[in-house]
Design goal:
It contains 6 helices and no strands. Helix 3 packs across helix 5 and helix 3 crosses helix 6. The radius of gyration is 15 Å and the shape is globular. The N and C termini lie far apart (40 Å). Keywords: DNA-binding.
């Protein structure tokens, strides 16, 4: 019997962002989140969307921003949080701000 027959398929919509982040962090080598300085509400909104795997274009549409602005914010968040990926940056923000 294959493992694929035993484990039911899980859709992204069925899992809360906090749970996805928890699973991701289990495999991460990072022990504690970086210190987060003051963030704007826009950065927090972008981070929440990153934690669900939302693409830059979809974030731009949802928030009414240009694609260039979203990409700049994502880059700043990843670097500023010391994250290894955009998803990890989103997870760090979700853990901090809910």
């Amino acid at each position: 019997m294959s493992v694929y027959q035993v484990v039911p398929s899980i859709r992204r919509e069925d899992v809360e962002p906090e749970d996805v982040c928890e699973i991701y962090e289990l495999g991460s080598r990072r022990q504690t989140p970086a210190a987060i300085k003051e963030l704007t509400s826009r950065q927090i909104a972008i981070g929440r969307m990153l934690s669900t795997g939302t693409k830059d274009a979809a974030i731009a549409r949802e928030l009414g921003l240009s694609l260039r602005t979203v990409r700049a914010e994502v880059s700043a968040l990843v670097v500023g949080l010391g994250a290894k990926s955009r998803f990890q940056a989103g997870c760090l923000l979700v853990r901090r701000f809910g």
